[in-house]
Design brief:
alpha+beta; Chloramphenicol Acetyltransferase; 2 domains
């Protein structure tokens, strides 16, 4: 094929492969496909079900593939050491460890923390369908190196992590879009808090529910303290798997939304190292499989040029222009809070169009009449 058609076809095949279902009962749970583009040009597609891998695992997999490739091209055996334990060993240990009083203590904390939880009623462009398609799209925005440095400096000064600062700002964004003072988001945690787990490929990551009150029009500094307390409390009780929590709390279930939270927030400030193989020139392909698991997912990556913010959103609910404006508002909030951490939430100057103010409610839940921005 001519080069432009070939690149388009590669993207189509990659997305088709990513969307092809797995048979979890029979496997395999890892598939590899080699696309031959020419005499010296290939694309490798490696697709794994999330049940056997996570983001940390991807870094391990890429590193070990590089080590094996280099050894095998030189006729040497695998230099990888035998693992002292396997993922199955961890699974058995976890089941035995998380019982009795230990399990009860974690459950008691989460029951108290999530008592009276209500859905986040994000305003959107379309009415929520009864049976979602999970069709999704992405919008990307780069926050500058200077702004990132200021955010890191603010975090050090206030005794919080960059994650907590970004989360607090994101909660303000959600507050201004919903006018709800009780903000809850889901967030991933690596959950590899034992050194024996650092080199294992598997699904260790857990989902935490971070709930913060924005009541009383606090200053950003005050909100940071609330966010820090909520985050540290969740970290201290991260060992309870999210599915176990859902099983115990038995929230009202709906095909239209994820239980307990509708918005996801993540920061990766440890990007994976470039994949290098001897004798080859390699480049990655930026693809999105067209699926959104949550109403809205904010994924942030810190790197040498600043912070890249990617929003994955349900196209059943939002238009691209709405998400683009939301990213603009997020950047305004970040810029204002690094300028003055003593600013109160309602004093942050976020401007929206008349069309956005009149957007219909995305959820089927009872909506607030009040929806306005300063």
């Amino acid at each position: 094929m001519p080069a432009p058609e070939r690149e388009a076809r590669v993207s189509e095949l990659a997305i088709e492969e990513a969307r092809r279902p797995f048979d979890i009962a029979r496997g395999p749970l890892l598939r590899s496909v080699l696309l031959r583009l020419g005499e010296e040009a290939y694309v490798v597609l490696l697709t794994m079900h999330h049940i056997v891998s996570d983001g940390w695992s991807m870094r391990l997999l890429v590193r070990e593939m590089g080590t094996l490739y280099e050894a095998f091209t030189q006729g040497r055996p695998s230099p990888l050491a035998e693992l002292p334990l396997q993922y199955a060993d961890f699974a058995v240990w976890q089941r035995r460890w998380l019982q009795g009083e230990r399990l009860a203590a974690h459950l008691d904390y989460w029951k108290r923390q999530l008592d009276g939880l209500k859905p986040l009623e994000l305003r959107a462009d379309k009415k929520r369908p009864g049976a979602p398609s999970f069709s999704g799209a992405t919008e990307v925005r780069l926050f500058s190196h200077d702004l990132t440095a200021q955010l890191n400096e603010l975090s050090r000064r206030e005794g919080v992590t960059l994650f907590m600062t970004l989360l607090a700002a994101f909660q303000i964004l959600l507050y201004r879009y919903t006018w709800q003072e009780d903000i809850t988001v889901g967030s991933p945690i690596a959950n590899r808090n034992r050194i024996e787990l650092e080199d294992l490929i598997g699904f260790f990551v857990n989902t935490l529910i971070l709930r913060t009150s924005l009541s009383g029009n606090p200053t950003f500094r005050e909100l940071l303290a609330r966010t820090r307390d909520a985050t540290l409390g969740a970290y201290a009780h991260q060992d309870l798997p999210f599915d176990k929590l859902v099983e115990q709390l038995r929230p009202e279930r709906s095909l239209g939304h994820v239980p307990l939270f509708q918005v996801f927030f993540a920061l990766n400030n440890n990007p994976s190292q470039p994949f290098e193989l001897p004798g080859l020139t390699l480049r990655g392909m930026a693809l999105h499989n067209g699926i959104a698991k949550f109403d809205l997912e904010m994924s942030l990556i810190e790197h040498e040029h600043g912070i890249t913010a990617t929003v994955i959103y349900k196209t059943d609910l939002f238009n691209a222009s709405t998400i683009s404006r939301m990213l603009e508002h997020f950047e305004i909030i970040l810029t204002e809070v690094v300028r003055d951490a003593g600013m109160r939430l309602l004093d942050i100057p976020v401007q929206v169009s008349e069309q956005e103010l009149q957007a219909p409610a995305a959820s089927s839940f009872e909506s607030h009449d009040q929806f306005a921005f300063e």
